[in-house]
Design goal:
The protein has 405 residues and is α+β, with helices and mostly antiparallel strands. It has a domain at 95-270 and 314-351: Replication Protein E1, Chain: A, CATH 3.40.1310. The protein has 11 helices and 13 strands.
């Protein structure tokens, strides 16, 4: 096992330190700006390259240098603090009703198109899934209510292959058309999955066809033939006849459980450092769950080049928001709509019994808001800020900004 000190936990940065330069050299003509910046940010994270500060313990007086984080949304080490702050802000938005988890997945042929048109097709995935839920829920024969929720984009499967899907967290009910009543859904049931999947498929394919007609889609390599209308039409016909996957889980136990569940999805990256098993000169090993065998944990071994390639499949375009709100939780009407919801529910919102300490437990412990002293456990506080390493300058501020979306 290499790339880390004896007894230390392996990190993604260890893979990039050992194999990143060879990967950049081998793929110099095909490695995009975003991918290069992500690799650079992860390598610099919590090193002298980004500077840092001196922390001192309130209890025993221990002092140490803590280097700054890159705060890149693709960096596994930087999601804990962002997740904790985001969850704290979400507490006041939770309603005292059951919440459901609904997942919308793109079939493999469409996922391939999405990879070559990330910003455009991922946005379609968000829009079609939200419209499918809000349209079906508004039908008086279904729920007959205006619903809202949030959606989080994930683009990976357990083995780091490209598998775009959105996780939606939705209250089990909604507002009546006049906004005066809360319409509760049936216990343990949100919306019928089969018609939801059919509507999602139709809405998505309509958007995809419009984008093709507008000349907004690009097709390269093996997908180049799809630039011809007859081939594209054949793909649409094939996808229209295929079954699309929509999965709905049972509701959560309450607001606190919903908050904890959100923390598992909103700020996740494609692989956590805890899954890394070995980093060697000719392979990288990591754990994965085989859901075809009841979630059995297995070890996957990849060549370093292939591991880095798969990790970089999931970089997102600059400025792309991977957490979005829809329905009565949309940014343009959330405050007003939540007030109507609470009024319609007939009682004031009960603040979830989840403290900042609880939220920090959900986050990555090493990125908690108040770091603990490794000697006595007391709070470490910033007492001085040293200069950055001599001669280092930040090449581009964008990869180091805090983007929690």
């Amino acid at each position: 096992m290499a790339g880390a000190k004896p007894g230390a936990r392996l990190e993604l940065a260890d893979v990039l330190h050992r194999h990143g330069e060879a990967y950049r050299a081998a793929h110099a003509g095909h490695l995009g700006r975003v991918e290069r910046r992500v690799m650079g940010a992860i390598l610099a994270c919590r090193t002298a390259a980004l500077g840092g500060h001196v922390e001192a313990c309130d209890g025993c007086g221990l002092e140490r240098v803590a280097y700054n984080s890159c705060r890149n949304r693709h960096c596994p080490k930087c999601q804990g603090a962002a997740r904790a702050h985001w969850l704290a802000a979400r507490q006041a938005e939770l309603l005292p009703v059951p919440y459901f988890h609904v997942v919308f997945t793109l079939p493999a042929p469409i996922a391939a198109v999405a990879f070559q048109n990330k910003a455009l097709v991922y946005a379609m995935l968000f829009a079609a899934s939200a419209e499918a839920m809000t349209t079906l829920a508004a039908n008086p024969r279904r729920l007959g209510a205006r619903i809202g929720g949030l959606a989080v984009l994930h683009t990976w499967g357990q083995t780091l292959t490209h598998h775009p899907h959105v996780h939606c967290i939705v209250p089990g009910g909604g507002l009546s058309s006049d906004g005066t009543r809360w319409v509760a859904g049936r216990p343990n049931f949100f919306l019928a999955v089969k018609p939801l999947a059919q509507l999602f498929r139709r809405l998505f394919l309509e958007r995809l066809r419009r984008a093709f007609d507008a000349g907004a889609l690009g097709f390269f390599g093996d997908l180049a033939p799809l630039a011809e209308r007859t081939n594209f039409d054949a793909l649409i016909a094939e996808m229209r006849a295929a079954a699309w996957v929509v999965y709905a889980k049972k509701p959560f136990g309450g607001p606190a459980q919903t908050l904890a569940y959100l923390g598992r999805y909103t700020h996740r990256v494609d692989i956590a450092s805890s899954r890394l098993v070995a980093v060697e000169h000719d392979h990288v090993d990591f754990t994965w769950k085989d859901y075809r065998q009841d979630g059995a944990v297995k070890i996957m071994r990849l060549a370093p080049d292939e591991f880095i390639r798969r990790f970089l499949l999931h970089t997102l375009p600059d400025g792309f928001h991977r957490i979005r709100y829809f329905g009565f939780l949309a940014n343009t009407c959330r405050t007003t709509s939540l007030a109507l919801c609470r009024s319609a529910l007939g009682r004031a919102m009960e603040r979830p019994e989840t403290s900042m300490a609880d939220i920090a437990d959900i986050a990555i412990s090493s990125a908690s808001i108040a770091p603990a002293c490794p000697e006595c456990g007391s709070i470490m506080r910033i007492v001085a800020t040293p200069l950055r390493a001599a001669g280092w300058s930040r090449p581009d501020p964008a990869p180091f900004r805090c983007d929690t979306s």
